[in-house]
Amino acid sequence: VQRFLVTRLGEDWIFLVLLGITMALVSWTMDYASAKSLQAYKWIHGELRGNIPLQYLAWVSYPLIFILFSSLFCHLVSPQAIGSGIPELKTILRGVVLKEYLTLKAFVAKVIGLTAALGSGMPVGKEGPFVHIASICAAVLSRFMSFFSGVYQNPYCYTDILTVGCAVGVGCCFGTPLGGVLFSIEVTSTYFAVRNYWRGYFAATFSAFIFRVLSVFNKDAVTITALFRTNFRMDFPFDLQELPAFAIIGISCGFLGAFFVYLNRHVVLFMRRPNAMTRFLTKHRLLFPAVVTLVIATLTFPPGFGQFMAGELMPRECINSLFDNFTWTKISGSPPPVGLGRSAAWLHPDVSVFIILLLFLLMKVCGCWAVCVCASAFGRLVGEIMATLFPHGIVFDGILYRIIPGGYAVIGAAALTGAVTHTVSTAVICFELTGQISHILPMMVAVILANMVAQGLQPSLYDSIIQVKKLPYLPELGFGHMSQYNIFVEDIMVTKVNFISSQSTYREVKLLLDSSSLKSIPLVDSKESMILLGSIDRLELLALCDWWLSPERRLLMQVRSTVLSAGIQCLIWESFAFVDEEEEEDGEKGSPVQEERNGPLPPPKPQEPSSNHTAPVPGELRGLHNSEYIFSFFFFFFFFWTVIQSSIKAWEEAEMDKPMEIDEIRVDPSPFQLVERTSLHKTHTLFSLLGLSHAYVTSIGKLVGVVALKELQKAIEGSTRSGVRLRPPLASFRDISNHNSVSKPPPSSPAAPSSPTSTSPPSALTAPHSVCVHFLILVLPHLLLIFCFIVFHI
Amino acid sequence: VQRFLVTRLGEDWIFLVLLGITMALVSWTMDYASAKSLQAYKWIHGELRGNIPLQYLAWVSYPLIFILFSSLFCHLVSPQAIGSGIPELKTILRGVVLKEYLTLKAFVAKVIGLTAALGSGMPVGKEGPFVHIASICAAVLSRFMSFFSGVYQNPYCYTDILTVGCAVGVGCCFGTPLGGVLFSIEVTSTYFAVRNYWRGYFAATFSAFIFRVLSVFNKDAVTITALFRTNFRMDFPFDLQELPAFAIIGISCGFLGAFFVYLNRHVVLFMRRPNAMTRFLTKHRLLFPAVVTLVIATLTFPPGFGQFMAGELMPRECINSLFDNFTWTKISGSPPPVGLGRSAAWLHPDVSVFIILLLFLLMKVCGCWAVCVCASAFGRLVGEIMATLFPHGIVFDGILYRIIPGGYAVIGAAALTGAVTHTVSTAVICFELTGQISHILPMMVAVILANMVAQGLQPSLYDSIIQVKKLPYLPELGFGHMSQYNIFVEDIMVTKVNFISSQSTYREVKLLLDSSSLKSIPLVDSKESMILLGSIDRLELLALCDWWLSPERRLLMQVRSTVLSAGIQCLIWESFAFVDEEEEEDGEKGSPVQEERNGPLPPPKPQEPSSNHTAPVPGELRGLHNSEYIFSFFFFFFFFWTVIQSSIKAWEEAEMDKPMEIDEIRVDPSPFQLVERTSLHKTHTLFSLLGLSHAYVTSIGKLVGVVALKELQKAIEGSTRSGVRLRPPLASFRDISNHNSVSKPPPSSPAAPSSPTSTSPPSALTAPHSVCVHFLILVLPHLLLIFCFIVFHI
What we know:
The structure is a homodimer of 794-residue chains.
Chain A: H1 2-9, H2 12-47, H3 52-77, H4 86-93, H5 104-119, H6 127-145, H7 157-174, H8 177-188, E1 191-193, H9 194-217, H10 243-272, H11 276-283, H12 287-300, H13 315-322, H14 328-331, H15 353-363, H16 368-389, E2 394-396, E3 399-401, H17 405-421, H18 426-434, H19 440-457, H20 461-468, H21 483-486, H22 489-492, E4 500-501, H23 506-515, E5 520-524, E6 532-537, H24 538-548, H25 551-566, H26 569-594, H27 609-614, H28 619-638, H29 645-656, E7 673-675, H30 680-690, E8 694-699, E9 702-708, H31 709-717, H32 731-736, H33 770-793
Parallel strand pairs in A: 4-5, 7-8
Antiparallel strand pairs in A: 2-3, 5-6, 8-9
């Protein structure tokens, strides 16, 4: 019965349910804590009304404390928790192992840091870090589940588990199961197993369900509805004549998104360059976030500049008010109608709504979530302009329809986030967040236009971060370029391959190992035939060479030869028989592990790095310990005088020239092979499908070259010797929009290769550089602000 | 300039736009035509009011003519157009080539047939055939586009093109771009390239947009809104206490769906069994659809039985009225409120709404679209029951909320179609169709529950059809069964491999070709070493053998030897030099095609089946035509007396024992290889990722076995000699629900292997067997009907 229960508990759906519940609880708790914190913040601010200096001090110091705590906590507990986490996850799902990224420590650091950052009222994105949190949760849970079922220990399961983790992360962040699954797929994968769809939906729905039910139990909501529910009219959501306006929003969002990614990368690259300022910032890690927080808080201080940019609204309230049903330009003069609520913050008695929206827009270009806020503001701006242009609405069929600026805000939000992340599923997330799908067609049109423009100009934000952080990646192949079928592996492969033949001597192997840093080395039959037999791990070879020249082996060899010459043969024969038996056993044990390599996702097993070193030591040595040890010890003293120091050197030299014993080491018998005429398209497909890092090129069994990720990357980006130049997807739009003078910098920009954590991130959870962008952009509104101030008070 | 224009026109996005426009036009035209036809149908019915016999005649004969025309047309033009087409497309995307499925002829047959069937008012599904139509359209368009860009000729593009075609098909069928893309992915793919996401969205959105704009221009609609727009209240769409009811709908829909698939398969298998009735039906192909149409039309005749099952409503009107906002149980007694419209058809003065819904439900279990109608009716039934149980609505927070039975209908529709097709994205389609997303969480819960139950009990409808039609397929691997990692290729591989060594004689090759039907044969170095050098196509070998024993070659050889003996050497040497040159050229020309095999999707190029036969004939022969032909002809007569009939036999025998000339034929140098310890999970992944049909198993270069799709299929389904038994995904639920006594029949059921078109399909476009189910089920309501009649009139 117990065994039955244990296997039942190891079932897949239990894992999914557990993951869903855990993440829903985490998400809800974080939301609850940060909401309480924000409440306290506003309460303090309200209590101190009248005393402007004190009010200012409270307004500034409250977020400062939280941000500093969050920063410090992450730095101390787990520096891996810094940053959005999506680029790293994309790399991990690509098959690369990043250490310490999926540990419980990072989980704790990220959860507490994110809660503090959200609670500070600063515009910080939640869904990026949440993807990371959910993935850690999935990884940790799978380790726990392996107690019940061995499946979870299998490295091939890892991708399946992490993919579901990502889906749950986005899904339970806002209670959007559909959009969450789609977004996580678009952002993290290149090829996707459809069976994981189902699992993602299951876990994400469960998670979103619990997340929303918790808020019902907490009396936050009457029933389960959308998080940012809108109330647009449904019988006539928009007119066809409004479509050009939607298209304009889409295209401008595309340009904005591309510009954002461009700026982001350049600011980060600038920060990485070693100069006096960055050195100073690296030394005082906490200074930078503190200064940024200070500046933001000062600017949004409601009685100060904040009154011109709706500074008193917290990020969530912003979104809600931007999506509302009223047309602000119409209200601004007259007394506010009933039910306006927080939107009143946008209406300044003296300043036009447009200016406020514009200022707000310039303020909020930071972090991914803030991108959404910013885009809503932009959309709202266009909507309000439309409402001003057509003050009486649009006449159709004799009936007058008002324009709804809130709809424009929703579309703007979806289009800009779509442009920055290069995804279409932001539209789905928006539908789920607002609870209305009536704007589906204009929104899809806007998102697709934004994507076209942004993809033509820049890589996505996450790809850009991956490039900047110099993580291994494979660029996407565009569709429809003939050249990807005309370029073959033989054009891009490296023909000078380092290899080992079965006749190689130890000297050659040693030389090879010293001269290169390849992780695995191909083994060929002989130098003449070059028939590929397999590949050997670098560690195996190192261990073999070390052992071959080790003092133990030398002594053993001397013992043997001396014993033989001394004529005590009978004893030795007995012990040798024993040794041979052990050798056979050892060989058998080794084989199950041996041939597991070469396939989709070969993640090195980090749990046994030491055994890798010791395992290949041939059985001969181990036999020594049993019976021969006493003998060798005895003879060691007896024949000591024969071993003079100079003879050791001579022995080593002689041994180095002996051929290597191939039978003693593990050979991966089928490394991934391509033929010379494999097209670039197919190579790219295989590399991204199977997560390969390199492949050997063979011609009827003969090794003729090798292709690694680097060569492929170069070929796609157009810097190979054969003059290949493949343009990125949708590059035709890029040509059109070149007048924009935004040119993509070459990936090998002259940034100094500093460590990824060398810049001091401002808050633990936005991408570390995005706040730098923020910082840069803060100069603009400041100037504009003063300008406006002067203009309006004259 | 012209070249620039041509390449521009070959761009990917132009293809997508063209595809979108074409499909939107096709879809809209079909809708328009069938709507007009239905209008005429109703008009005739209305005009003849009062004259019951004449009215009946018109009611019955109208659909009869349309269905017979549609049936006949498809049979005559293209029999491949029969059936839903999704199973076939799934097989094509798997890498198998089905001939004649993607031709213009099938397109015409399907479009006209479907229009006629839709116009007949019979419950026929639109989206299944539409996927097929769109795929044909994409395939034809890509052939057209290859005029501008060579990319479209590449066979690897094919999958990309067809995937987008499927997405557009579903998307423009109802104007649901999001759901269309997701549904087509879930239904057709196993692994999906994320870059096709974007392309699918682009084309589907464009298509849906045009489709909806056309109806606006046609004044069918004021603006672009959802097709089956609902108007549920949004502030409080449902209460948490209603969730159990939603869950019940989900679970029962799961059982219903599984039962539907089960019934479907068994009826088809029964129809395939050769007996007197099926033989009769096969002979009179048109009889079966005619009878079915007659019976349906008779039953739905509004003044007759039709009044008890809302017979006068056309399928689309049904859905619209089922989704409406009124609670029918409340209305039925009192006078109908304003705005009830067509829902009035459901309210019979004497009979309860429940009975009508129940009857309607039993009527409509046919085709996939009809599944949707049926499920809506079921959901509505549950909703009405709920409304009766809680007549005053649900009290929450002191406010009374009415129950909306329409919401239940929507959820039921999504859950049942989801259960039958094993997809989650039906929920998305429902959101888009109704234009409301407020019920997202209960709908997702219901759909997922329905999927869990249905997946545990039965394969999906499409997989079931694939199995019944005996198309090649690969079963899905469940997640989390340890055994898939413990079973290795060595357990399932076939060790007795037919092979050719480089020393093989022609006799051996001939024997091998006669004894087996393998498509490609492995080539090894020698029988002793067994080192795999590559694989050879069957056609190549056949051509080589044929040529080796051909009279031409015999004569050539004799000519040569005779000429040599005659001493006219100088002449021959000249011509030989010529021949050698040609041989080299030929070898070079052959090579680009040569090594294109072995990778994802190797679809044979149907355009050059003949060249396959002629190409491998070595250059020697071709040289013959040039200069030696005159010689040979001359010597043929001169030495005729030396060639006696018996010597031919002897010559052939002698030639048969010569070793084969490997250099003369094309060898695929890297057929797909696995090692013995590759796990079943990895093998499955590779097979489904790369669309392999077989793979060789090697051990350090030595060929030790072969694994084909069949072995893998057997291993997964649990009938291998090693006693492996992998249960299907979610089988734990299957164990639980075994009391249902629905047991999955073994795939090798004793159905006679008749040809796929042997059963006579009733309408050209529903799956041919689904109407058989219909027929079977028709007996039930008939009896019930009479029973009810008696009960209610006593």
